[in-house]
Amino acid sequence: MAVCRRNFRGECLENRREGGKVMAKQKIRIRLKAYDHRILDQSAEKIVETAKRSGAGVSGPIPLPTERSVYTILRAVHKYKDSREQFEMRTHKRLIDIVNPTPQTVDALMKLDLPSGVDIEIKL
């Protein structure tokens, strides 16, 4: 009988048993950010395709809430304070989880060429 360490929610931390050792699943979490959602979706599709080709499980791309920054400026230089102009900048975000990555997955992701304008944050 295998004894399982549990977290504060009561979930089992060890996910599978191999050769008498209990091992936890590995996961790579990739978070993408961009101002243009088309480039972001293309990049996410490239990452998912590369990970699936190398034999890893993929969860995503999961769309995260879009961050919206609004900047208000005066139209006139000296007076007419009531006349203003607003500009906004939207930051689109996606989340991709790669479950049980192989060394080939990591190599393929390192060699992947993504367009400029996409910010990538990787957590192991």
Set down the secondary structure blueprint.
Elements: E1 16-18, E2 21-23, E3 27-34, H1 37-53, E4 57-74, E5 84-99, H2 103-111, E6 118-123
Antiparallel strand pairs: 1-2, 3-5, 3-6, 4-5
Helix pairs in contact: 1-2
Description:
This protein is α+β, with helices and mostly antiparallel strands and 124 residues long. It has a single domain, classed as Ribosomal protein S10 (Alpha-Beta Plaits, 2-Layer Sandwich). 21% of the residues lie in helices and 44% in strands. It has two helices and six strands; from the N terminus they run E-E-E-H-E-E-H-E. It has helices at residues 37-53, 103-111, and strands at 16-18, 21-23, 27-34, 57-74, 84-99, 118-123. It is elongated, with a radius of gyration of 22 Å. The two termini are 30 Å apart. Residues 29-123 form the Small ribosomal subunit protein uS10 domain.
